[in-house]
Amino acid sequence: MAKPIIDTLAIIGFGLIGSSIARAARKSGAAKRIVACDAAAPARRTIAKLKLADEVVADPAKAAAKADLVIVATPLSAYPKLGKALGKAMKKGAILSDVGSVKRPALDGLGATLAKGVHLVPAHPIAGTENSGPESGFAELFKDRWCIVTPVRGTPKDAARIVEAFWKRIGSKTARMTPAHHDRVLAITSHVPHLIAYTIVNTASDLESTLRAEVIKYSASGFRDFTRVAASHPVMWRDVFLANKDAVLEMMGRLYEDIATMQKAIRHDEGATLERLFSKARKIRRSIVQAKQA
Amino acid sequence: MAKPIIDTLAIIGFGLIGSSIARAARKSGAAKRIVACDAAAPARRTIAKLKLADEVVADPAKAAAKADLVIVATPLSAYPKLGKALGKAMKKGAILSDVGSVKRPALDGLGATLAKGVHLVPAHPIAGTENSGPESGFAELFKDRWCIVTPVRGTPKDAARIVEAFWKRIGSKTARMTPAHHDRVLAITSHVPHLIAYTIVNTASDLESTLRAEVIKYSASGFRDFTRVAASHPVMWRDVFLANKDAVLEMMGRLYEDIATMQKAIRHDEGATLERLFSKARKIRRSIVQAKQA
After folding, report:
1. Do B172 and B187 reside in the same domain of the chain?
2. Is residue A208 less than 8 Å (CB to CB) from chain B?
3. How far is B140 from chain A (nearest CA, A)?
4. Domain range holding A204?
5. Most-buried pick from A129, A166, B123, B260 (CB within 10 A)?
6. How many CB atoms lie within 10 A of CB A48?
7. Model confidence pLDDT, tens digit, residues A225-274
C-alpha cells in the first residue's frame, strides 16, 4: 500500500459523509490513524461498534488536538461554534478542511477564529446518497466523483496540495474554484433541484387523502425520482439554503421565469414552443451522458 | 406455456412502449400473432431486422383489420386521425386499447368514430425509460408495474377483463379508474414533475457558458436526476401537456404557492419552517419505499 498522506486524521461529524471518508481513508491507507468525533451519543456507539475509527470522542477540541488534518462534516450551522473550539485546539502546521455544500460558511464560520499557523482548505465532495448516519457510509462513495477544493488567499500551496492528494487517494477527481463561484454552481446544480424536489413532494402530500394514496401507488411515473432527492437530511439542507440564500434566490428567480414560459405555452396550446423547449432539455441530458456523469 | 389471451394483436406505433409490449407478449405467450405498424420507415426496418413481429405494415387500417386487440402506442396527437382509420377497419367484437399518459384523448380521439361492436378499453401502463424507438424496448418493462385501465360507460365487462388479463400476463398489476380521475392523478405524479424537470434543465442551459459547462461536470449533485426525467420523448410530452392542460395547470398553481412559501422562508431566514417542510417530504419518501414502488 502507498505511504499514508496524513498521520492523524480527525473527522468531526460522523454521518454519511464523515463515516464514508473514514472507511475510504482506511481502505486506501490515506491516513495512519483516525479520530472520530460526533456530538450524538448513539452515533458514537455505532462508530465504536462498527470499529470505524481508532478513537471516538465527543469533544471536537480533543479530537483536533493531535490531528494533522481535521475534516468538519457537520451541518453548516455548527461551523461558528466549532471554528472557535478548533481554532484554539489545533496544532501549528495542521490543516482544517470541511465537506460543506456551501463554501462561504467555511470561511466565515471555521476560518474566522483560526490560530496562526493553522491552514484552512475548504472542500466539497460531490457525492452522497439519500441515507444518513454513520451506519450508511461506504468506502466507495467518492470513487470517480468530483471533489471541489476552494483554497483562500494566504493558504500555503502545500496545504491545498495535501488536501487534494488525500481526496485523490480515496478515489475522487479534484477541481479548484473560488468559494463564491462554487456557491453559484452548486445553487443551480444541487440546491435549487433539491428545493424543487422538496416542494413538489409536499404539494402532493397536501392533496386530498384519496389522491395522496394514489400518488404513492403510482409514483413510478416520474414523482419517485423527486422523492429520492427529497429524502436527504432536513437539517443539513435547512443550513444549505440559509447559507447560500443569495445564489439560491437568484437561480429561483430565473427558474420562475422559465416555468411561467412553459405554463403560458400550455395554456395557449403552443405545441411548437413546448416541443422546442423539451428538445433543448434532451440535448443537455446527452451532454451529461457524454461527460460520463450519468 | 398458458393459453394465449389474444389471437392476433396489432400494435400501432412501435416505440419504446409498443416494442416492449410485443416482446413481453411473445415471451409470455399472451398473443399468438403480432402485427406491428409504424408510420416511420426506419422504425419498420428495425422491427423487421430484430424480428419483433410476425408482420410489419405501414397502414394502421391494414394492421387492425384482422386483429382481436389493437393497442395504440403513438403520441396522443395521432389519435383523431387514427381513430377514423381504425374505427372502420376493425372487425366486430374486437377491442381497441391504448397506452397514453392522458385518457381523455382516448375517448375523444380514438372513441369518437368507432364502429358498432368494436369495444374501447383505454389503458395506461405506468412504466418507461428515458429511451425511445423500437430498439430500446424490453420484455421486462412492465414487470410488477401498475397498468391503469379506464373502461367507459357501455364497455362490455368481458372486454375490460380481456385487457386486464393481457396486462397481467405480461407482468403488470392492474387497477381501474375513471378517465378523468386518472388524468388528475397523473398530472401530479408524472406530468408536473416532467414539466419542472424540463424547465430546470433549460434554466441551467441558459446560464452563461462557463457556468453551463460546470453544471454538466458537477451534475451528480442532484441536477442529474432531473435531466434523466427531461430526456423523455419531446413529441410525446408535448401532446401530454396539451391534452391534460386543465389538470396540469391546476397542479402547477398549487406547486407555485408552495414554491413561494419555500422562497419566503429562505429569504427571511426561517430555519424552523424549512426544517419542518423538509422533514414532511422525507416522510412521503418513506411511504413510497414501504409501498415497494422505490
Report:
1. no
2. no
3. 15
4. 181-290
5. A166
6. 14
7. 888 888 888 999 999 999 999 999 999 999 999 999 999 999 999 999 99
* Same domain (yes/no): A168, A186: no
Residue B208 and residue B137 share a domain: no
Q: Is A40 on the interface with B (CB under 8 A)?
A: no
Nearest to B126 among A221, A259, A263 (CB): A221
pTM: predicted TM-score of the whole model, two decimal places: 0.87
- Checking if the pLDDT of A179 tops 80, the result is yes
Q: What total of structural domains would you count in chain B?
A: 2
What is the average pLDDT across A36-51? 97
With CA atoms as reference, the chain A residue closest to B227 would be: A285
B133 inside 8 A of chain A by CB: no
**Residue A1 included in any domain:** no
Q: Do B120 and B258 lie in a common domain?
A: no
Chain B residues touching residue A103 (CB < 8 angstroms): none
Q: What is the ipTM metric for this complex?
A: 0.88
Do B31 and B150 sit in the same domain of this protein? yes
